[in-house]
Amino acid sequence: MALALPQHRKQLRAIKNRDLDDLFAAYARAAKALDKFRMEVPRRPELIEEYQTACASLEEDAKRLLARLTNQR
Hints:
The protein is an all-alpha fold and 73 residues long. The chain contains three helices and no strands.
């Protein structure tokens, strides 16, 4: 996720939080699946789109959580 959100790398590495860890794990699974679907032949565009959307959603969730955790400090 740090590669997808370079502007938040410092925060992602500095903040230790169970919810953030769960988002990292979910993102890793979704990104791995997305990579797999992108390499498949024949391609399944519906799955690629679904997992692109899932990854983008998890990135947004992470940004919101980081903002909330940063404001709590």
